[in-house]
């Protein structure tokens, strides 16, 4: 412990200068200043001006990049564009530009701070003996003086331009981090557009909701087909005419114990089998279905012996077709894809947080953080033997949100 006198009256402490209180505080805390040197002891040193300009340039760059990030985030065309569509190049630049501007903003602010510390703050080496125990009045007073002294010796108080630049860079850095969170805030009750493969903007609709409008929806799998290259008199180009990304599924397409990811396919967008038309262009609509964030469904064909053990959910006894069951692929925990199906145990697994659902008991959660069963899609076959939706989901798909009814 330090032997420094602490028996100072309040009047004596008030009469001490910041320099005296700083020295006293250092002694009381057992701090020994082994070395201290001002960077620029001579006022008006050209080197000091160069150092300040260097810091200001990096802080200004941080501000410019922060403003550029916000401008791109708010105004750049971000809507999805498929291959061959006008504006595809602008769309593909959206995410890289966000990363570039935010990264440069953060990096520039960091460099500005490091440069300020290394080139402007006084050089100092201090050694402190650590001690325990609560702080009393004299400790609080001296600590305040030490902080005031640090502010004065940093010279930042008289560098108004650097204050503004560093402060502005720090604020924009915060906005760079916080602004993207605004995109995660969504009113689940607001209708944003006409009902389509993406729903209508409310969080309980999806492409499967089109069934409620009388649209016949096939269960269709993604073939992964892309635009085809053609050569003509005008040169080489790509086209999606006659290209089919989604094809209808028949029961015999799936082996017992198998699983297939399927998406809603409206009858008007079918272009496969006996309905194939090489002049028809449905590729864009197929991609809208695939990218609908609540459209993915796990179509599972249980082994017949397992199907005899199924426990149906009340009110959903006829949602399956034979041994075929369709569950939403969106985990009810936080919306990850439940992309794994273990046929031996009939468990559906979410790889994000290891939630498990029992396919033999209406997708009921049996392990992990998920608390709700996977919504089940009612399915059947049509007159041509293709699997179709018999109705829409009867509960919202995905994780819980405020004011949810299920």
Automatic annotation (TrEMBL):
Chief place where the protein resides: membrane
Membrane topology qualifier: Multi-pass membrane protein
Entry-linked PROSITE patterns: RIESKE
Subcellular location: Cell membrane
Transmembrane segments annotated in the record for this chain: 55-76, 96-117, 165-185
Recorded GO CC terms: plasma membrane
Origin: domain of life: Bacteria
Record organism: Corynebacterium phoceense
GO molecular function (one): oxidoreductase activity, acting on paired donors, with incorporation or reduction of molecular oxygen
Entry keywords, A to Z: 2Fe-2S, Cell membrane, Disulfide bond, Electron transport, Iron, Iron-sulfur, Membrane, Metal-binding, Oxidoreductase, Respiratory chain, Transmembrane, Transmembrane helix, Transport
Family membership noted in the UniProt record: Belongs to the Rieske iron-sulfur protein family.
Protein known as: Cytochrome bc1 complex Rieske iron-sulfur subunit
InterPro entries given in the database record: QcrA_N, Rieske_2Fe-2S, Rieske_2Fe-2S_sf, Rieske_Fe-S_prot
Stretches assigned to the Rieske domain: 294-388
Pfam family, any one: QcrA_N
Biological function: Iron-sulfur subunit of the cytochrome bc1 complex, an essential component of the respiratory electron transport chain required for ATP synthesis. The bc1 complex catalyzes the oxidation of menaquinol and the reduction of cytochrome c in the respiratory chain. The bc1 complex operates through a Q-cycle mechanism that couples electron transfer to generation of the proton gradient that drives ATP synthesis.
């Amino acid at each position: 412990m330090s032997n420094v006198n602490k028996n100072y009256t309040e009047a004596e402490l008030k009469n001490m200068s910041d320099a005296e209180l700083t020295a006293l505080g250092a002694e009381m805390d057992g701090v020994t200043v082994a070395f201290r040197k001002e960077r620029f002891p001579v006022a008006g040193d050209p080197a000091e001006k160069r150092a300040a300009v260097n810091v200001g340039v990096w802080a200004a760059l941080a501000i410019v990049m922060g403003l550029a990030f916000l401008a791109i985030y708010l105004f750049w065309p971000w809507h999805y564009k498929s291959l061959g569509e006008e504006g595809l190049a602008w769309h593909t630049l959206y995410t890289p530009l966000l990363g570039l501007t935010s990264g440069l903003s953060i990096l520039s602010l960091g460099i500005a701070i490091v440069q300020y510390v290394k080139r402007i703050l006084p050089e100092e080496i201090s050694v402190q003996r650590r001690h325990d125990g609560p702080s009393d009045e004299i400790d609080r007073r001296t600590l305040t003086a030490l902080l005031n002294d640090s502010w004065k010796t940093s010279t930042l108080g008289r560098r108004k331009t650097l204050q503004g630049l560093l402060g502005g860079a720090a604020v924009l850095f915060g906005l760079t981090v916080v602004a993207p969170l605004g995109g995660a805030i969504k009113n689940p009750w607001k209708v944003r557009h006409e009902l389509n493969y993406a729903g209508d903007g409310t969080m309980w609709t999806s492409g499967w909701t089109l069934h409620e409008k009388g649209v016949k929806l096939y269960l269709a799998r993604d073939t992964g087909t892309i635009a085809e290259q053609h050569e003509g008199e005008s040169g080489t180009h790509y086209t999606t005419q006659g290209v089919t990304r989604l094809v209808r599924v028949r029961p015999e397409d799936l082996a017992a114990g198998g699983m297939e990811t399927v998406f809603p396919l409206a009858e008007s967008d079918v272009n496969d089998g006996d309905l194939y038309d090489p002049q028809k262009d449905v590729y864009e609509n197929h991609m809208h279905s695939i990218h609908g964030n609540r459209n993915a469904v796990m179509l599972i064909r249980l082994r017949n012996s397992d199907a005899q053990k199924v426990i149906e959910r009340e009110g959903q006894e006829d949602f399956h077709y034979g041994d075929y069951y369709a569950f939403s692929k969106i985990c009810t925990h936080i919306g990850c894809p439940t992309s794994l199906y273990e046929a031996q145990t009939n468990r559906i697994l979410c790889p994000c947080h290891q939630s498990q659902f029992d396919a033999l008991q209406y997708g009921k959660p049996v392990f992990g953080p998920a608390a709700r069963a996977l919504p089940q899609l009612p399915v059947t076959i049509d007159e041509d033997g293709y699997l179709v939706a018999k109705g829409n989901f009867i509960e919202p798909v995905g994780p819980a949100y405020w004011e949810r009814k299920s």
